[in-house]
Amino acid sequence: MKIPQEIQSILEKIQKEGFEAYIVGGSVRDFLLEKKPKDWDITTNAKPEEIQKIFTKSFYNNTFGTVTVINKDADDKSLKNIEITTYRIDTGYSDRRHPDEVKFTPNLKEDLARRDFTINAMALQVKNEKQKAKSSEMLKVKNYEIVDLFGGQEDLKKKLIKAVGEAEKRFSEDALRMLRAVRFSAQLGFEIEKKTFQAMQKNSELLKFVSQERIRDEFQRIILSDRAYEGVELLRTSGLLSYIIPELEQGIGVAQNKHHIYTIYEHCALSLRYCPSKKLEVRLASLFHDIAKPQTKAGTGPDSTFYNHDYVGAKFARKILSRLKFSNKVVDKVALLVKNHMFYYNVDEVSEAGIRRLIKRVGKDNLKDLMDLRIADRLGSGVPKAKPYKLRHLEYLIEKVSRDPISAKMLMINGQDIMKILKAKPGPKIGAILKVLLSEIIENPKNNTKEYLDKRTKELYELSPEEIRNSEKIIEEKKEEEDMEDKKKFWVK
Ligand code: ATP
Ligand code: MG
């Protein structure tokens, strides 16, 4: 692990003007862990105007007192924008979110003391040429020094997330830090130090002062980490979950039925644990797919049912993710996956038309994700083994069936053709005919020929608009019925 030349040269330039300059915060932590930092942060006693004088290609963000040095030519993303921040102290947090005022300080120690965790509160000084020359006389001497006032290196060794100073005070200044503790724990596989964790349990309620956007950013990083399950468990045991997704807690201690050994909450969390996908949407869907089970539970004991929990669950997921200000794209995708997670599939039992309907319903691009959700669901249920051969067979069928018509685009006839055949003007009747044709072809793709569709078009045109719509409805209803049958057979029920 090396400190990039770009960073060394920035440090040198600042030092040459007579100021102090250190690498600081998360980048020192990652460097010592031999991980590539997401970005390199630099701190100095030079004031923003003084930094700008040194770096002509920089911009100054007045609210945060940070100067960004722009490095357009850098190939490495972490070196494109390098932030240099003047030593500062935060003075008071009357809204519990933002420091009332940022005050510069000439003292590195004070800058380190305002930082959240000991492993994030270290500064790294690259030795100058003279010092380097000296140290290279002795083999294997590092060319840097660490300023570590709060035992950060020790905690890195012990794999501990520990607040700088008095944990309770630090969390009441900025409640987001509690969520950051969980996030770092999930990302790094570190434990949260006991006193720090107790302070979280005591102060979790303060999270309600934090904006949903900031909560979302940390929550997302927890979900995307390698220890997403452990992260969610920490959210629960610290009490933070009540202020992020109280809906998940409704399932705590709620038993399911004879098909399940886990409670609803346990199953949701374990599905996330075993989710084979690294995509945010699939992971969220794994966590949320059964979120409406507590509300849709009917009966008690081994024969309980959860009818419509998929539909209600999709609504819940929408509500939760919108509240957390996730993008519409994420909200829509998770809702789609949750809504369709009960899709029935058994080798030899489901017709090719059934697969075509599934593809029409969820879209070809979402099928892989829906299958990953199924794998997560099965592995998280603890009872049935995942049955990869079934899913492989389904994949094969999807491949096969994908060549058949699933959207109106794939019909051998389009709106223009229909108007030509009928010598008719555009209107709702044309659209209605197209819909009926598509429904028929999904059931029987062999009929997707110009001749057949030509003939059917003429037949349908004889019907009233009402009758056309009805004939589509009849097909749709048949599908609905089949889908309901599918669900009854499904192992979760
Ligand atoms: P990463 O960039 O990998 O997410 P990081 O530790 O660099 O991790 P940033 O959010 O980039 O995290 O913040 C940089 C540094 O600023 C942190 O290491 C920490 O020292 C300090 N910091 C960030 N947010 C807070 C906060 N809410 N309270 C106190 N210090 C903070
Ligand atoms: Mg960072």
Number of helices: 24
Any idea of the CATH topology of the largest domain?
Beta Polymerase, domain 2
CATH class of the largest domain: Alpha Beta
Q: If you average the pLDDT, what whole number results?
A: 89
Helix content: 40-55%
Biggest beta sheet attributes: 7 strands, mixed
Query: What structural category arises from helix and sheet content?
Result: alpha+beta
Strand order of the largest sheet: 3-4-5-2-1-8-9
Name given to the CATH architecture of the largest domain: 2-Layer Sandwich
- The fraction of residues assigned to DSSP E strands is 5-15%
Radius of gyration: 30 Å
Total separate domains = 4
Separation of the first and last Cα atoms: 53 Å
Low-confidence stretches: 489-493
Shape: elongated
How many strand elements? 11
CATH superfamily of the largest domain: Beta Polymerase, domain 2
Bound molecules: adenosine-5'-triphosphate, magnesium ion
Describe, in plain words, how this protein is organized in 3D.
The chain is an alpha+beta fold and 493 residues long. The protein folds into four domains: 5-155, Beta Polymerase, domain 2 (2-Layer Sandwich); 167-244, Hydrophobic Seed Protein (Orthogonal Bundle); 259-401, Hypothetical protein af1432 (Orthogonal Bundle), CATH 1.10.3210; 411-489, no CATH class. Helices cover 52% and strands 9% of the residues. It is built from 24 helices and eleven strands. The chain has helices at residues 5-16, 26-32, 48-54, 108-113, 129-137, 152-158, 167-173, 176-188, 194-203, 212-224, 228-238, 246-249, 264-274, 280-288, 293-296, 309-323, 328-339, 352-362, 367-379, 388-401, 415-422, 428-443, 450-461, 465-489, and strands spanning 21-24, 41-44, 58-61, 66-70, 81-86, 88-91, 101-104, 123-126, 144-147, 160-161, 191-192. The strands form three sheets. It has a seven-stranded mixed β-sheet with strand order 3-4-5-2-1-8-9. Helix 16 (309-323) runs antiparallel to helix 17. Mean pLDDT is 89; it is low at 489-493. Bound molecules: adenosine-5'-triphosphate and magnesium ion. Adenosine-5'-triphosphate (ATP) binds at residues 25-26, 38, 41, 115-116, 120-121, 174, 176-177.
